[in-house]
What we know:
Bound molecules: phosphoenolpyruvate, manganese (II) ion
Shape: elongated
Number of strands: 8
Amino acid sequence: MSYLDIIPGTEWGFFTLPRPMCIAGPCSAETEEQVMETAKGLADFGIHVFRAGIWKPRTHPGSFEGVGSKGLKWLRKVKETYGMKVCTEVASEKHVLECIKYGVDIVWVGARTSANPFLMQEIADALEGTDIPVLVKNPVNPDLDLWIGALERLNRAGLKKLGVIHRGFSTSAPIPYRNDPGWKMAIELRTRYPEMTFFADPSHMAGNRKYLQELSQRAMDLGLDGLMVESHRCPADAWSDAQQQLTPQDLKTLLESLEIRENTSDNAAYREGIDALRARIDLIDENLLKLLKDRMDVSLAIGRYKKEHNVAILQTGRWEQLLGDMVKRAAELGISADAVTAIMTAIHDESVRVQNKVLEEK
Ligand code: PEP
Ligand code: MN
């Protein structure tokens, strides 16, 4: 596992608790009025980090590809007028240099760019010597190492204020969302780097505002730090991603509807209760290990017996019957077929490995 030298968001100076910290703003900066009016609507209820795409990576050429550098002046005006921090997407050295020139506070790397090591290196080199916070969206394809590699390149260039934005993965599977949430990968990354600031982007995950609430709630239930949500003064008129944006007012309603459970609690009674429950789990796990060891010993004996009688190790009929029985019994106990199949397959694989070793014995 690679080591990342990261300064947590709580030390960036503008990161807020309690969760969720919310970064909001339109998919794209379109006009000065649209940017200023949207920022005002958001600042009015306490959003203090404003997002807007200035250069837009679009699937088809000829779609609106962003207003370019002139939009950075509008972002500067948002900073000056409302005291918000501003952030935008960068995908090249030129974008980075322009952002530095106009005092952009935070940059993010989009999903199409984090998937490309050449571009990531170009961006990292351009950012070297600054301490701008960089948020890296997951690559479009579910490749955790590629995502981590992008963070490593930034880290090697001396950038330590690193965070991630989970926006889901491209998929051809028929799902209601624009992207497959793939929460498993987010949890994996979260577990490896618990100190890294972690946002979810329910807007690009959903592709449609009707799913924003459930995805935002899910992100909070998983203990993620914040949300990046697209908000536009008039979503229906948006020049990009019209279906997934919310008015500032609707965003306020959404944020107020979220149920936030604490990641942990300092409450003494809670600590006592959780410690007792964890002690029970530890004991059960210890017993599980002992049982597994007993099972492996019997496996070994079976292996030797089969060898003596010149019988093949893998008896598929017996394995299928055993698994079928276990799935049935598990159902009676309320344990899912998927779970028991995964557990029994792992145990059986180990059993076969142990028995195969017997064959190597002289
Ligand atoms: C965006 O944030 O507007 C954007 C283009 O997102 P993504 O890179 O996640 O597609
Ligand atoms: Mn967008």
